[in-house]
Amino acid sequence: QFLMANKLDTAMWISRLFTVYCSALFVLPLLGLHEAASFYQRALLANALTSALRLHQRLPHFQLSRAFLAQALLEDSCHYLLYSLIFVNSYPVTMSIFPVLLFSLLHAATYTMKVLDARSSNSLPFLRNLLEKLNANQQNILKFIACNEIFLMPATVFMLFSGQGSLLQPFIYYRFLTLRYSSRRNPYCRTLFTELRIVVEHLIMKPSCPVFVRRLCLSSISFISRLAPTVA
């Protein structure tokens, strides 16, 4: 009854579980490397479906207008719909599947707890304990996802020069990264950029750091800072 009363949430729960399943079989290619590539695409397509359903839930009345598009781009679900479209037809990159896997795992875990609560307050204690441990580490997981999002930017450039990526991919991914940096719901991308900058500046200011390395790092920090969008 609980599942039928929340059909859209249930559909997203099922698609997230399927995303976790496909992502796991890509990361751990138990069925062979050829099959792993197909699971990579299935995971991203399932994530795109979940993101589209979530976006529909957040913005139920679609309008073909600039104002609606601007509003949609503020939603995290729209960001990851774009993310899935960027990588679904590209060369499989293990780093790109982790945000999809972990976000799906976190959201699926939250809804699974609701399903267990609707069934009985004491049902499946082992699974409850596992889900509670996962939720307790949510902040660390979100930071790891943000780290993946950041380091995928140079990875897309490397893929371009190695012949495994398209010319447009780094530019479209840069747009995705600016959306994540400006996210209202998830500040972890901004936080990680700040933390990485502090760590790098601390290291290069040590006397043992060569001068040319210090200048290169300071120039890179200045360049990246200019590319960062303004956050209200």
From TrEMBL:
Q: Which domain of life is it from?
A: Eukaryota
Record keywords, A-Z: Membrane, Transmembrane, Transmembrane helix
Spell out the subcellular localization from the entry: Membrane
Membrane topology term reads: Multi-pass membrane protein
Do the record's keywords include Membrane? yes
Q: Transmembrane ranges?
A: 12-33, 80-106, 150-174
Q: Which InterPro entries match?
A: PER33/POM33_regulator (IPR051645), TMEM33/Pom33 (IPR005344)
- Signal peptide segment: none
GO cellular component annotations of the record? endoplasmic reticulum; membrane
Name by which UniProt lists this protein: TMM33 protein
From what organism does this protein derive? Stercorarius parasiticus
Organism lineage reads as: Eukaryota, Metazoa, Chordata, Craniata, Vertebrata
